[in-house]
Amino acid sequence: MRNVLIRFALLLVVGFSALAQADRIRDLTTVGGVRDNSLIGYGLVVGLDGTGDQTTQTPFTTQSLNNMLSQLGITVPTGTNMQLKNVAAVMVTAKLPAFGRQGQVVDVVVSSMGNAKSLRGGTLLMTPLKGVDNQVYALAQGNILIGGASASSGGSSVQVNQVNGGRITGGATIERELPNNFGTSNIVSLFLNQEDFSMAQRIADAINSRGGYGMAQAVDGRTVQVRSTANNTSQVRLLADIQNIDVSVPIQDAKVIINSRTGSVVMNREVNLTQCAIAQGNLSVTVNQTQNVSQPNTPFGGGQTVVTPQTQIDLRQSGGALQTVNATANLNSVVRALNALGATPIDLMSILQSMESAGCLHAKLEII
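^ Flagellar P-ring protein, sequence as received from the core. Prediction below:
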């Protein structure tokens, strides 16, 4: 009997261990001060197959080309009307990574800002990329890779995906390094990806349970601070060890996300319902108007022919049956209960809002 109880207890432990979910700290947090920085620049794309900007409608393309040619020692006669079909003005964006070093290459995204039909086959000329402080941090240049395709003939056209924007892999070279204060303080901050007081405390407890990692403290629902007296090199090793620590994920808040633009509804597994009754129906109103001609009874009676409108209004309501939704405690049951209503995603949004107001939907309703 004792052996049976021991085996049963072991099975319970294994079962609860399988249900418990653990994630690494690196997947739950980001390190304070370690982030990307946005870069932007204005440039020209050349070598297009007649799909560039129409310079009469985009004069800044001609002005930019004149400025570039003057820097190369070429003077365009005053009053020259250049008809450029193979040039397009573009905006170039990139991300300067954390700890980016001089000479390192990064990817850039090129997007047309004029009326060019396509950037396929184009080459981006050297474009300075500036940061928020208006300083140049990288130079971009190279051949653009377009993921879309388009064709036109005889007034008909077909297009797949976007052809007015593309990407250059390794198209920008970092020329200036961004100052970084990593390692100058004895406190390392970890920022949670999602605000959660329980998760912040669990991360702090997990770090403190490992000896030699310093003292961790949950400051709020978003920040965990780790105090250490190590220098810059040791902080790298400290973070390398901390980020691989597994933390059990607590029960999440029950949420229902509604996208009013696309009509999509997404809910997590913590959503549950209590028993309620729902009436769902469609109301349609049809208005028909016809024109009737009214003529006098006798040809010479002195009457006048007139046109009289006749309006008919028809109101119909389909469905509307009162349906019962039973209490459910798991996501599959919630989905089955909502599908039983036979409502469209648009109708489901109103139903969920009403259920939350009635108190039978136990979740946070968020509309984006």
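The CA atoms of residues 39 and 133 lie 10 Å apart.
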